[in-house]
Amino acid sequence: SGRSEYNLRSPICCIMGHVDTGKTKLLDCIRGTNVQQGEAGGITQQIGATYFPAENIRQRTKELKADANLKVPGLLVIDTPGHESFTNLRSRGSGLCDIAILVVDIMHGLERQTIESLNLLKMRNTNFVIALNKVDRLYGWKACHNASIVKAMKEQSRDVQFEFRTRLTQVVTEFKEQGINTELYYKNKNMGKDTFSIVPTSAISGEGIPDLLLLLVQWTAKTMAARLAYSNEVQCTVLEVKVVEGHGTTIDVILVNGELHEGDQIVVCGMQGPIVTSIRALLTPDPMKELRVKGSYEHHKKIKAAQGIKINAQGLEHAIAGTSLYVMGPDDDAEDIKEAVMED
Ligand code: GTP
Ligand code: MG
Ligand code: NA
């Protein structure tokens, strides 16, 4: 997670959408993992986080742009559940991100939680791109593994191209009914103004994944330099409180900005009042691995934003997910910070 020469932090991208549109599978496709198949009932029930170093993104997008200068150190992607009962987690995820991917199943169009997610994004004025997923389900689709979508579309029969255009038009119309203009990303001259970009994808055969990644990192670096400017001030949110074998009670956090160190005095909101403790271990999964999935952890002396981190410290049993974590500086007044923490 090195700093970029531009001193930007990694953008945080939240992936949202109706249940089973393929959010986790898209991430599996990029990571080369199988998280989705390990989920109970194939349903995501927690917020996840995966860090993609710029180098991996460069590899994955080189067919589209060999010399992509990505300017950001990487991309932190937050996975959210699409099931109707997890509105609070979608809200939490969307509140943390700089940009979002709204996933729509091309065979189903806009569904209930697509619209709920869209409204969360509108409310916070968050920019997003639409992944029009499952294009491989168009009848007669010829797989072009991990190809750019323009190249893959050229390989398709007239019938497949016709079905694609028909379904795309339907989805564009449904977005219009929600007051949102959309357009295929490579035709969209008004991205960031009033028209949102659609990237057709398949999480099974990988078509459109290079397009989606390149669009995200280039767009954020181009338009969000001020927002992504690295700052020393720690901005950090607790995602989950978990007991982990060999580590005791830990918290999974998203570090949005700043730097955390082993030994830092931290204050988090607890059920019985503020919890003041010190960081015993700062752990991350390997790059391109999901934070919420048990695996091996890398230990760090310090970590810079943006990153998904597991923190091991004493007394975290009653920490409350969704609240902010504060770091006590040498000049800080402990009572002020304790008060601020409990205001969450
Ligand atoms: P929740 O997190 O539970 O809301 O679902 P999700 O949006 O993460 O969807 P998930 O990744 O669990 O995928 C749901 C189902 O759709 C799984 O059976 C996937 O294998 C399948 N699927 C996902 N993406 C694609 C795709 O691009 N093509 C095809 N054919 N199937 C897909
Ligand atoms: Mg999922
Ligand atoms: Na699912």
Can you put this structure into words, describing what you see?
The chain is of the alpha/beta class and 344 residues long. Helices cover 27% and strands 28% of the residues. The protein has nine helices and 16 strands. A seven-stranded mixed beta sheet has the order 2-3-1-4-5-7-6, sandwiched between helices. Strands 8, 9, 11, 12, 13, 15 and 16 form a seven-stranded antiparallel beta sheet that branches. The chain starts with 11 loop residues before the first strand and ends with a helix. Bound molecules: guanosine-5'-triphosphate (GTP), magnesium ion and sodium ion (NA). Guanosine-5'-triphosphate (GTP) binds next to helix 1.
Give the topology string: H per helix, E per strand: EHEHEHEHEHHEEHHEEEEEEEEEH
Based on helices, strands and strand pairing, what is the structural class? Answer: alpha/beta
User: What is the count of DSSP helices, taking H or I runs of 4+ residues?
Assistant: 9
Shape: elongated
Secondary structure: number of strands: 16
Percent helix: 25-40%
Distance between the ends: 29 Å
Largest sheet report: 7 strands, mixed
Mean pLDDT: 95
Nearest-angstrom radius of gyration?
20 Å
Give the DSSP E fraction (strand runs of 2 or more residues).
25-35%
Provide the list of bound ligands, each named once.
guanosine-5'-triphosphate, magnesium ion, sodium ion
Question: How are strands sequenced across the largest beta sheet?
Answer: 2-3-1-4-5-7-6
Low-confidence stretches: none
